[in-house]
């Protein structure tokens, strides 16, 4: 696996970065297959769409940004975006439009200095990239955002393409190698555990464009996949592709009766008398679960927050591994590991700050009283 990804990335970049189209420019093919002429040297950019500014921060290119979308100006006590917590200056930067890719060409044209490139995730969300490029006269480069489990080649290729454009190719390789190494480490620690020793588990309260209750889950939950856990919400092999997000019935959760429960603390945004934590403590159906009666309920960090925070996914996987297979993760302190991951990926150990607003903290055994 480690050998395949670098080869794919090298081949992709070789194809995408072409001979200079004219003096001071070069032609690239973006992740949407669009041919775009960009300046030979790019020093000023803006990022459109969920996760785009996160990519730039991973590449240590946040100082190139000259404007941000409205999500960065939003005033809320809750925030689980490590890249934004590590860069509070984003809150004071000029606006380029609304969040989720709803850019405003007039605001972009009024930026001083002007961006040389607009990076855009989720090309079908918000402003059409070709129309945005035509209205602003600024090249728009589409990059892909994807599952860290199933489609991380798209993530790596996007980071390498963005890195090549802004002169951060070495950092792009480092961040891709870092994620791949951590995921490989998680897999290797748990790959040889016999099936009979694997505990069944379920995660509820997963955020999806806002907080949800205990029935909100991810059949394709990457932290479970990375440590080879048995996710009761994931269909058996050959029975269909697991969904990225699903709302399952209360009756189904009771029927599954998983041995270990995990709760995404984003659900606590719903208040003390709502959300997954309140439901587990008060609903007779959930009280009947073996995991609840035995006290095997644990909290994990949110990672679906303006799309997926990849560092939080990896951090959650280490905590899940520590809970499910303590002997395989006895050298891991999940909280220290999380800050090690954040320090490398966004430049700051942000775990404590990220959890300050939540009434329930991540990486803990839940108090069910």
Topology:
Blueprint: H1 4-16, E1 25-29, E2 35-39, E3 45-48, H2 52-58, E4 68-69, H3 82-85, E5 95-97, H4 105-109, E6 117-120, H5 129-136, E7 140-142, H6 152-166, H7 169-190, E8 200-204, E9 216-217, H8 222-226, E10 230-231, E11 246-247, H9 250-256, E12 260-264, H10 275-282, H11 284-287, H12 290-293, E13 297-300, H13 310-324, H14 334-346, H15 351-355
Parallel strand pairs: 3-6, 4-5, 6-7, 8-10, 8-12, 12-13
Antiparallel strand pairs: 1-2, 9-11
Helix pairs in contact: 1-6, 6-7, 7-13, 13-14
Keywords:
globular, Rossmann fold, alpha/beta, 4-stranded parallel beta sheet, 369 residues
Description:
With 369 residues, this protein is an alpha/beta fold. It has 2 domains: 4-180, Nitrogenase molybdenum iron protein domain (Rossmann fold), CATH 3.40.50.1980; 198-355, Nitrogenase molybdenum iron protein domain (Rossmann fold, 3-Layer(aba) Sandwich), CATH 3.40.50.1980. The chain has helices at 4-16, 52-58, 82-85, 105-109, 129-136, 152-166, 169-190, 222-226, 250-256, 275-282, 284-287, 290-293, 310-324, 334-346, 351-355, and strands at residues 25-29, 35-39, 45-48, 68-69, 95-97, 117-120, 140-142, 200-204, 216-217, 230-231, 246-247, 260-264, 297-300. The strands form 5 sheets. It has a 4-stranded parallel sheet with strand order 10-8-12-13. Helix 3 (82-85) links the parallel strand 4 and strand 5 (95-97). Helix 6 (152-166) runs antiparallel to helix 7 and helix 13 runs antiparallel to helix 14 (334-346). The model has no long low-confidence stretch (mean pLDDT 92).
């Amino acid at each position: 696996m480690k050998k395949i990804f670098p080869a794919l990335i090298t081949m992709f970049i070789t194809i995408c970065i072409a001979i200079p189209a004219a003096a001071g420019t070069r032609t690239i093919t973006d992740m949407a297959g669009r041919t775009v002429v960009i300046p030979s040297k790019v020093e000023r950019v803006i990022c459109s769409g969920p996760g785009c500014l996160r990519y730039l921060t991973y590449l240590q290119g946040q100082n190139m940004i000259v404007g941000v979308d409205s999500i960065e100006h939003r005033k809320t006590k809750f925030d689980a975006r490590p890249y934004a917590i590590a860069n509070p200056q984003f809150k004071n930067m000029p606006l380029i439009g609304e969040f989720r890719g709803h850019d405003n060409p007039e605001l972009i044209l009024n930026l001083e200095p002007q961006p040389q490139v607009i990076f855009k995730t989720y090309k079908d969300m918000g402003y059409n990239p070709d129309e945005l490029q035509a209205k602003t006269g600024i090249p728009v480069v589409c990059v892909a955002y994807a599952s860290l489990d199933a489609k991380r080649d798209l993530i790596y290729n996007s980071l390498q393409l963005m890195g090549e454009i802004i002169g951060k190719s070495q950092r792009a390789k480092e961040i891709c190698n870092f994620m791949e190494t951590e995921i490989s480490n998680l897999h290797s620690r748990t790959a040889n555990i016999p099936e009979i020793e694997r505990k069944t588990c379920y995660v509820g309260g997963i955020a999806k464009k806002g907080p949800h209750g205990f029935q909100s889950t991810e059949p394709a939950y990457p932290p479970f996949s990375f440590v080879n856990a048995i996710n009761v919400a994931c269909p058996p092999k050959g029975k269909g592709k697991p969904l990225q997000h699903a709302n399952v019935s209360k009756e189904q959760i009771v029927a599954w009766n998983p041995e270990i429960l995990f709760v995404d603390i984003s659900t606590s945004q719903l208040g003390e008398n709502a959300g997954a934590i309140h439901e587990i403590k008060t609903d007779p159906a959930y009280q009947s679960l073996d995991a609840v009666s035995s006290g095997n309920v644990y909290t994990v960090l949110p990672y679906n927050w303006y799309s997926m925070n990849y560092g939080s996914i990896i951090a959650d996987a280490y905590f899940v591994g520590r809970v499910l297979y303590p002997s395989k993760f006895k050298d891991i302190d999940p909280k220290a590991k999380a800050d090690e991951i954040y320090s490398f990926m966004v430049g700051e150990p942000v775990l404590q700050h990220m959890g300050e607003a939540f009434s329930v903290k991540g990486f803990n055994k839940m108090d069910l009283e």
